[in-house]
Structure formats: C-alpha cells, structure tokens
Amino acid sequence: MNNKFLILANSSSAAFASVPLLSIGEFRTNLIQAVQEKHCRVSSFFAMPEKNDFRLIAVLADDAAAKIYITSAMTTERYPSLTVDVPAFHWFEREIHEQYGILPEGHPWLKPIRFQKKEDGSGDKVQIGVTDYFQVKGSTVHEVAVGPVHAGVIEPGHFRFQCLGEEVMHLEIELGYQHRGVEKMLLNAPDKKTIHIMETVSGDSSIAHATAYAQLIESLDPSLVPSENARKLRAAAAELERIANHTGDLGALAGDVAFLPTASYCGRIRGDYLNTTAILCGNRFGRNFIVPGGIRQTITPENTAEILKRLDTFQVELNDALHLMFDAPSVLDRFENTGKVPYETSVQIGMVGAAARASGDAQDIRKTHPYGAYKTINTEPVVAGNGDVLSRAEIRYKEIETSHQLLRNLLAEIKETVEAVPMREPVLQSNSIAVSLTEGWRGEVCHVAITGPDGKFCRYKITDPSFHNWFGLALALRGEAVSDFPICNKSFNLSYCGHDL
Fold this sequence. Notes:
Blueprint: E1 6-8, E2 12-15, E3 21-22, H1 24-36, E4 41-50, E5 53-62, E6 67-75, E7 78-80, H2 90-100, E8 103-105, E9 141-146, E10 158-164, E11 167-174, H3 182-185, H4 194-199, H5 206-220, H6 228-256, H7 260-281, E12 290-291, E13 294-295, H8 301-326, H9 329-335, H10 343-349, H11 353-358, H12 365-368, H13 389-412, E14 432-439, E15 444-451, E16 457-463, H14 465-476, H15 485-492, H16 496-500
C-alpha cells in the first residue's frame, strides 16, 4: 500500500506533496480494497479546490495496525460514486456534492446534508428541509413529521417518518439548522481565536475537539511539546467530559421511560461532575484549558487531591442511582431489543464510538490509535453485542466505571504542580498535511489540516462522531414503533451542531 497511500501515525504530519495523486480509477479501487479487504474505516473524505479542478482526499484508519492512510485523486465535475461499494462514504459524498457541485455518479440518494450554499457562495438560497423524501405508498401508510422545533431545550433537526400504523418503515433525518461555517472560519488560521472555535464545534465535546486541534498543531510546530503531566491532565479532562455526558444521557434515558428516581439523581450528579471539571479546567465545560504546547491552567497537588476526593463521593451516589434503573424490569423491558443496529450494518455504514461498540465493534481511538497519555495507559474498549438501546445504555454504564479508574490512575501520578503555558501563535510547517484523532465521549473525532506556502490553513476538515452516526439512528428506527423514537434518539444522543459545523 506504500505507493498508493501516505501512511501516518495518529497526530503526525508530512509534506502534502507526499500524498499520492492517483487516477480516479486507481483511487476508487484502492479505497474499496482497503475498506473491504483490510477492514480500514473511513475517518474523513473531502474535496479542496486545486487550480481549476478539485482534489478528493480520503483518510482511512487501520485500527489493527494503528496507522492512518491518506490518498487523493483529481476530479472535475463528476466521478463514479464510492458509496455503491462502500456505504460508509455516502454521507461524505453528499457533503462534497453540496459544497462543490461535484457529482458522485450512481450515488443512491444524493441530497443535501446541511442545505448550505456552495463553498464559493454560488447557487440559490436553499430552505432547510425542503427536499425530496422517500415515500411509501399505500392506503394505510401515513407520514409523521417531527421538528425542527422540539419540546425542551434541544437543538433543531427535522425527522420524517414513513409509518404503517404505529410501525416505522423508514426514517429520514434532515439537519443543517445549526450550520455556522466553522471550516470557512478556519481558513488562513491559526490565530488567537482558533482554539475557541474548536472548543465550540460541539459544545459538550470541548475537550475532545480542543485536544484533536492541539495535537495537530503540535505535529506541525515541533517547538510545541506538552509535558507528560500536561498530557495526563488533558486525558483526565477528557474522562471527566465522558463521565458527565454519559451520566446525563443515562438520566435522560430514565426520564424517557418515566423512571424518575434515576432521572432526578443523574441530573444532579451530572452537575457535580461539571463542577469538578471546573476545578481542573476553570470552566464547567472544559473551555480555556487546552492549548497547543500544554494546558492553560496551573494545576496544584491540592487541586488533584480535591478532585479525587469528590470522585469517591460521586461515584458511589451515581452507582446507586444507576443500579435502580438497571435493576428495574419495566426499564429493561423498554430498552431490550429496541432500536437494534446489527454489527454488520454498523461496520458497513461506518458507525463510531459507543454506538458502534454497542453493536460489537471494538473500536476506541484511545486503544487503536493511542495519543497523549493514552500511549502509556491501558484502555480496553467496552463492548456489547446486541446493538439495541439497552446495549448503548450498558456501554455508558461500564465506561463510567472505567473512566473513574483511568481518572484515579492519571491524577495519582501527578505529584507536583503543573504550570500553565502561555498561548502563542504557532509557526506551522508549510505545504503540509496533518491528521489528529481523539476518542470523544460519542466516538472518533477527526481533524485534518492542510497548510499552504505561508504555513496557514488552506483546508481544515473536521469530522465529528455524529457525522458518522446519524444514519445509524435512522436505521435503528426501522420496524420500531413511533413511540420508541425518544429512547432510540437519546441512546445515540448525537450532536446537531457537531454535524452541521
């Protein structure tokens, strides 16, 4: 594969000229073989203008070898679709078509994913959600439309159900209401505001995205080297982010089946973990903590001791609250065999993170492509096998336990004060490409940067785990009752803004 792909380790960089430029036929053949025969995953696929044409760039993750494969091809207005052979490309190809007008010929359902104008600003203004939908014909078939405005404080998205009675035959999900133009904002960066943009790609995953960005910058500017203790504190912040969000999700699942004791307890306990995050980061949601080269807060042994003390209290309370739910037959009856995504389907469509592990796919970037402190600590993926709501809940339950142990191990190793480092503008290698993967609480976060002759970003591609998993939610509803949608949706709990960018 060496002459067909540039091979990198996670959070590393190379000259952009070293990325193979293949014919479109070779490009397709090699990508299909890598996914189907070598079991690589599609981490990112995007286009960038080059001269008068476009360069297609694919980033694959080889979990077995802990390697990242990058290759490219030039195209003009069209190319044979990859989706027909590798369904994991389907959402990416829709994105590329929407952004640049490049037609993937043979794509089975080519429609917008964000309803945005083309990257050059051309094209008519598009109204979000106004598009063609699959329709099931029949006298007893009806359509149910939900959103984009929802009850409660949640993000906007439109869900279109094709139903036979109460049974969902098909669900289509239309997003784009949260599109902010993040990737456009990153052109000609980095600058002082870049890290703050990264922290708000998906607000509940600030640490995951900030870490991916910081590691990418550190690979492009070798003068930025975080200390070992800074790396451990970054990982500790990531595990606190994981625990807080998993706790909130399990509480919300309990609320969706009217099991109020766990719902109430988890709502309060999630706040305890967010307050603990503020001790470490100075912010309950992990903002202003990670910078290229280290961390922005000075952390003392007293800080780490206080966090460890709180964990001892909170974990006992959380376990009590979760035991109530997982010991309740009425809850288990609602969760079990509801919203199933089989292993084969999960792999085929490219699902990531907890949702993929719930279907039996043992992928976890902390283990398969270790980075930062995870290079020196053992992190075994938590895997279930039924692919249903119960499995997705159990994954969170077990990951809360393993994250507590990781936190204790990481913080116990820090015996001295870890000093904050000043944030400075990095000097990046010119004409380079870098890839950084992290394991956010939802799954794989992928950042790809390409620099120009001035060392500034000429393309920056972000793939949030929700980008991979929204189609998984749509498939999970097939054959289920409409009333099962809330618990299926919450068992994935995907990010609207992380998808919309």
